[in-house]
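User: I'm putting together a teaching handout on how sequence relates to shape, and I'd like one worked example. Could you take DUF2285 domain-containing protein from Nannocystis punicea, show the sequence you're using, and then write out its predicted structure as tokens right after it?

Assistant: Happy to. First the sequence, then the structure tokens directly below it.
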Amino acid sequence: MLKLDPDQRREITAATRNESERRIFALLRQHYGPTQVWPGDAEALEVVRAATVKAAGYEMSAERDVFKIAALMLSFSDDFDTREAWAREIVAARDGNAPIADLLYQAGIAEVRRYEDAARKS
């Protein structure tokens, strides 16, 4: 059995996380790069890194969950989960450590559509 010392384990973990963040960034750029919420590549990569930390705080490590958290952070702000009423409700209703990225993302999309509809009617 191969044994890794703690430094080797940290290096592998950091490299894996970096690769994951790059994949999430590329997908985020593909979907949001041409929109007004895109802050630029360097800033968006920082959003992805912050989303990785935020998702981990909710015990969600899947790339798809981090992508959704990052998209919400781009659209609403890095503290959307504590600032937006719809997000706070989802977080408060969370059962144990159940993943909530899908629920947050769906609610975020609904909120954006509601805002867009209201802007069209004005």
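A couple of points you could highlight for students: The CA atoms of residues 2 and 34 lie 46 Å apart. The first helix runs from residue 6 to 32.
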